Amino acid sequence: MSLPEILKKLRTDRKWTQDFAAEMLKVDRSTISKYETGKVTPTYQTLVQMAEVYKVDKTLLTDELESPSSYSAADKSVLKENPDDKDMEMIREIISHFPDLKKSLLDIYTFNEKKKALAVRMIKNNIHALKEF
Q1: Rounded CA separation 4/127 (Å)
Q2: What residues contact residue 87 under an 8 Å CB cut-off, 6+ apart?
Q3: Could you give the C-alpha distances from 48 to 89, 123, 126, in angstroms and in order?
Q4: Taking the CB of residue 8, how many other CB atoms lie within 10 A of it?
Q5: Distance between CA atoms of 76 and 61, rounded to whole angstroms?
Q6: pTM of the predicted structure, to 2 decimals
Q7: pLDDT digits (tens, 9 = 90+) for 84-115
């Protein structure tokens, strides 16, 4: 699989639009399109940033700069979560039933660390208040 194909697959597997991926990477949507069509090759630093955003091992993307080989993204992908984690299954189920929650969580992902910590505290406090209600 070529680098442009891998990039597109990573984005579409997450059901992200090019606009959302561009926002996450702080680039223009047309840049994402150019990467995914092979018109422009991202720099090494950009690929490292993309790996962080897509939560995959950076070598999945950076290895393609050195040697364009045909391998499956699934073979090289290293998720930063435990696939056997039962809590993650419940979280995926909740998110699938409440798309607005997913959008809100993705918004939090774009925050700086201070805002992320504040958002987490606010969520925890609201959930605690709901439990007491």
Answers
A1: 41
A2: none
A3: 27, 30, 35
A4: 21
A5: 9
A6: 0.51
A7: 567 777 888 888 888 889 888 888 888 888 99
